[in-house]
Amino acid sequence: MRTAYRVETVRAAERALMARLPAGTLMARAAAGLAAACAELLRPRLYGARVVLLVGSGDNGGDALYAGARLARRGAAVTAVLLNEERAHPGGLAALRAAGGRAAGAAGAERLIARARLVVDGITGIGGRGGLRQDAAGPAAAAAEHGVPVVAVDLPSGVDADTGEVHGAAVRAALTVTFGAWKPGLLVDPARALAGEVRLVDIGLGPELPPEPDLVAFDDADAAALLPRPEAESDKYRRGVIGIAAGSARYPGAAVLTVGGALRGGAGAVRYAGPAGGGVIGRYPETLVSEGRPSEAGRVQAWVVGPGLGGGPEAAATVADVLAADVPVLVDADGLHSIDPERLRARSAPTVLTPHAGEAAALLGTSRDRVESARLASVSELAVRYGAVALLKGSTTLIAEPGPGGPEGRGRVLANTTGTPWLATAGSGDVLSGLIGALLAAGLAPLDAAALGAHLHGLAGRAAPVPPMASTVTEALPGVWAALSPRR
Ligand SMILES: NC(=O)C1=CN([C@@H]2O[C@H](COP(=O)(O)OP(=O)(O)OC[C@H]3O[C@@H](n4cnc5c(N)ncnc54)[C@H](OP(=O)(O)O)[C@@H]3O)[C@@H](O)[C@H]2O)[C@@H](O)CC1
Ligand SMILES: Nc1ncnc2c1ncn2[C@@H]1O[C@H](COP(=O)(O)OP(=O)(O)O)[C@@H](O)[C@H]1O
Ligand SMILES: [K+]
After folding, report:
1. What residues line ligand 1, using a CB cutoff of 6 Å?
2. What ipTM was reported for this prediction?
3. 3-class DSSP state for residue 78?
């Protein structure tokens, strides 16, 4: 499990640790890890390699300078571009000079960068505020223009460490070497995309960090531990029956894809209620189909409602009928048009909402741009406002639960890291709904079901032959499942 902490938490942990260690120890640890990562990138010819450090006036610049000193001692030709010559970290600058490195003002930065093999971004770390200022934006842009790989120190400068938001110019890194703990912004787009590969350097912060992280990302082991497995005494009902109210005369395929996701999600049985039963049976004869209202379809342990439902009063009536059931309900796509926060908060069983950014914007009464630029705030707001687990789809899929436990009285938030833009294909969201629905029916807690579903869906999107389509993502699920949890 990857755990990320906000700046104020990281700073408190650093203070506690620093109080027990000789001055400069943490920066020395950070710089050693940073230098090792840079040296690896410069292999096999570190000797003579031109390295440019972009050095801001805080400790982030200090890390870059001490790391630059280590590289210079090993023979690299290191030049520090000091964005503020009076305020560069004095100890770091002395160390760099003592190791044979040079320092320059910002004026000649572009010429130096154009000839460099590597740029180290030590402009701002967790002390940065807003997008890069003019004087810092120029050198950052020069690295991108000349195609020189950038290693970001702690964070790509210009991104918001706590939220992943980017307000203005920012560095685009090939590698980010972060210290002590992941920061939430490294897991959330648009910042995540600017961080490139991320490497965590252990500076001994672990014991000082609180047990509740601000953002969590599952790894394969977390996913494997949650996968439902049939027991000796299992029958199809105990494994979980999922009800699906999806599809319409206009969108019959959504019913088929949602049912497929549910079957490949390990449901003991799938009941389909709606007008697309013929198509569903044709593709998946194992489905129990009916044409009446969902509440007349028979007992289920969870419902999925919404994909391809179409609009209008009939769709709204179907959603209301499903929400009246006292079992977990996942609402997706067209189902999201007719939900009411009061009604959802009054439900005694959990609700899961799975909007993409456009649907989330409508639910929050804001714009799609605002949702995409502030994903973390948006997903938490959705969860709190609707009293539901919210899964926000897109380039970073985030999952939030309502209620106390997290920062500012908000619930836990998870980021899914398995996704791929190849999943942006019609109907792949329907597969995700069915998959999460099956996991809900199997008895997983809603946050776990949503996070595990997103994890499996992302892996399946990667495993499906390129270019994937929703059906082939579904068919990749068994392979993903088997790789995580070999059959007994
Ligand atoms: N604490 C520890 O134990 C450890 C900390 N470590 C390291 O320290 C880093 C934190 O250092 P920090 O607190 O000095 O802040 P930092 O990230 O350098 O930024 C502040 C500077 O940025 C400037 N600036 C701000 N916004 C800007 C903008 N938009 N555009 C341009 N400039 C901007 C701001 O300028 P000012 O506003 O003061 O004029 C100020 O000079 C942390 O990320 C990690 O790398 C490690 O060594 C491990 C141990
Ligand atoms: N840029 C992207 N990177 C990663 N995943 C994406 C991206 N865009 C969309 N996805 C994923 O693709 C799926 C699309 O779902 P959705 O928008 O509901 O489409 P549909 O309604 O056609 O099924 C979601 O799982 C979403 O997270
Ligand atoms: K940085």
Report:
1. 14, 18, 26-27, 30, 56-61, 63, 123-133, 136, 153-154, 179, 203
2. 0.96
3. strand
